[in-house]
Design a protein that fits this description.
The structure is a homotetramer. By secondary structure, chain A is an all-alpha fold. The first copy, chain A, folds into 2 domains: 21-78, Orthogonal Bundle (Arc Repressor Mutant, subunit A); 81-231, Tetracycline Repressor, domain 2. Chain A has 9 helices and 2 strands, in the order ααααααββααα. A two-stranded antiparallel ribbon of chain A has the order 1-2. In chain A, β1 (139-140) and β2 form a beta hairpin. In chain A, α7 packs across α8. Chain A starts with 25 loop residues before the first helix and ends with a helix. The relative contact order of chain A is 0.09. The model of chain A is unreliable at 1-10 (pLDDT under 50). Chains in contact: A-B, A-D, B-C, C-D. The first copy, chain A, binds a DNA duplex through residues 9, 31, 34-35, 38, 59-61, 69-73, 75-76, 80-81.
DNA sequence: CATGAATGAGAGTTCATTCAT
DNA sequence: GATGAATGAACTCTCATTCAT
């Protein structure tokens, strides 16, 4: 997307731009492809470490070892530990978005598609709790840490994108724009609340099941949306 | 509550048991009272540090210093850093419960009391984000860390207690037990979701306001409860 | 001199204040004395390392090892690596001053005392080249580095003190204040220049000897001072 | 000058030998010329980095980047980081010598030329403190580091050359050879002392000005030289 | 009960240098 | 001749915890 170039070591291609770069020098292209592959490898190692050990037990050393590198080598691919997590998070959101979009595309417009999109969102995080963690990692005590405004904006954008299908269907069902936005936000919050409670074992204590509760919430949302019809 | 369990050399009464211990030896009693007071002092220091600096900048040293102790001294009162946080969390939940109960008591039975109790719950955490952190601290990557099953049960019990008023009012409004439990769980999840999103700045991106959304959710809950009336 | 107190770990008694502290609690006094002794030990280790290996090959690890400590332990005594060097430098200047003062005291007032004081200054650094390095350590590329303004002022003060005897004698020999200051500065510069050249082997190339050259410079300075007599 | 000594795998012509090598093979000559040009480019990059960032913030990476190379490439031209600095120093001395010689040539023989030569020497370093650093870089703790005897001799030779004009004029003014050598050495030391003190801020503390002091020293040197006249 | 000292492991990062391609 | 990748050792500093006194 941008020149990137990374002549020396540090620039390290800020997370987000991949092969692109237009300059179709075939040699550079091959090199780039290889570098991207290695970067992906490191990312994969980071994810595996992170999923097994949790965030704060995952050190640069640990990641490097799993990737078959010495610690210093990682700094060719990422500028800092937090850059690694930023990349991980970006990639996670991309997967989320893809999953939601695919589910939405496969369903009939209207209520079914709304259910499909929201369900895919919820299921993504229910199946991959670590991905939810990822979204909160850069917050320590709920305060942003290594989260640059740019990264933050990028993440917000991807999140919005992942929720866009729900918004679209609510509109299609007759809900005014303002109401649709409100409902999407509430839906998002409800999902996150259920997921967090579920992952921390706080939902079992009510002898409830998060998926069922989410379905119920959706049912009522569909009802509400239907009420706007014909208005 | 339990036999104090002096596992290590340091007695380090596991958080939860206070003066008790029956043996009414007056000397021992006085000693105990003093020890409890000192423990409370340390806890207060921990809270102040934690609220000012956030979780990961709050070291044992920092707490000790604020309490006027050397780091080693804390281990007379707490078995580990995590034990400190456990105690802090217990105390936080006690405050939450008190606040909810007080708000509920001041409102007329039925819908007003439901609103008061739920509102108090939500407001408690909205006003004190750190207390919400506390509830999640012992989870790293959404997996428990220094959370013994006993502590976990104790915390669950306190949480349930804090939500009990809501449950009671839903019943009073005519909701069957099973439905009431379900609704309380969902209510809890919704609140948590909104709070988390709010604290991490993810709600602003929808240009929404968490308190308003929570009120709307409550409105609809009251409606649903009303629907059971006369049945 | 100041409260110092060092409750927790980091404060680490900024270099300069020793046992003092008035509070004649005998226990605290003994503890303090011991702590000071250990600090001196670390300082000694630092000096030995530094004299053998030179400044930038002297790491915290190296110092710790020589002192029989783990690296982390040093941070009880010094806040940072640069704090160690600050202390080392302060102590060096104190020795210099003592040596100059002692030599000056043993000589007859006037020219002999001027010669004694200046000679002691020069000899101190000729005999201990590392002490001269110390004075320049905090300059990387002739630009101050870890040199806080306060430390800088303290060092300047001690240097001025060490040169004060020369100034006094020049005045006594009849030189006006302004001229005396000028001559002391020039004397200082000449000494430093000769020492630097000597230590870097640049004087041998002229087949000269720094001590002889310094004596010659002094001779002429005495002549000049004498010329003011009777005016 | 020497047989280029390709010790390691990388040719890395030790600093000091340029195109020479007699073998007038035109192809080899062109190659050589190009290599020299590239070497000069790297040197220029090193100087710029070094002057902007200072010695210890100037890494091989930084130099390479400024020269448009990758770090590894530099090792084709220089055997080590210290070799780079050696070359830089050689070049610096060449500039010094040129400046001194030019100033001396423009002044009338005798005292004026002495003043011009010495003044040029002093001004060179006063205007370019980094060049003075360069001269001391290879000394860590006043002990040579990456300074091979050959390099050392070469540097000494250039220094002597830069001071030769002063020596010549002192002789011309009637000073015997031995005295002239002594005075040149002392002059050199005085200049260096003033410069070092000035650059480290130690002269300001006397509220003096290095240039003025140097002029005074010169005045007296001229006097002394004059005293030999007619003898 | 509390101190003061110390440990030991580990954190993230930097850098000159090597070498296959 | 130059690249891009990687090494390996080093760096300062932080922290929870232990324990003799």
């Amino acid at each position: 997307m941008s020149p990137a170039a990374a002549t020396a070591r540090r620039p390290a291609r800020k997370s987000g731009d991949s092969a692109a770069d237009a300059t179709a020098d075939p040699r550079r292209l091959r090199t780039q492809a290889l570098a991207d592959a290695r970067r992906a490898l490191v990312l994969e190692a980071a994810r595996s470490a992170f999923f097994e050990l949790g965030m704060d037990k995952t050190s640069i050393r640990e990641i490097a070892q799993r990737a078959g590198y010495t610690p210093g080598a990682l700094y060719s691919y990422f500028a800092s530990k937090e850059d690694v997590y930023g990349a991980l998070l970006g990639e996670s959101l991309a997967r989320l978005d893809a999953q939601v979009r695919s589910a939405a595309g496969a369903a009939a417009a209207g209520a079914p598609r709304l259910r499909a999109a929201a369900g895919a969102f919820f299921d993504f995080y229910r199946a991959n709790p670590r991905d939810l963690d990822l979204g909160f990692y850069l917050f320590q005590g709920m305060k942003p840490r290594g989260l640059t405004p740019e990264l933050n904006d990028a993440l917000n954008a991807r999140l919005l994108q992942a929720l866009q299908p729900c918004r679209d269907e609510l509109r299609r069902l007759g809900m005014p724009a303002a109401a649709a936005l409100q409902e999407v936000t509430a839906l998002f919050a409800h999902a996150v609340g259920l997921l967090v409670l579920s992952h921390t074992g706080r939902i079992r204590m009510f002898r409830q099941d998060s998926a069922g509760l989410f379905r119920r919430y959706l049912d009522r949302l569909v009802e509400r949306a239907g009420a706007h019809e014909g208005s």
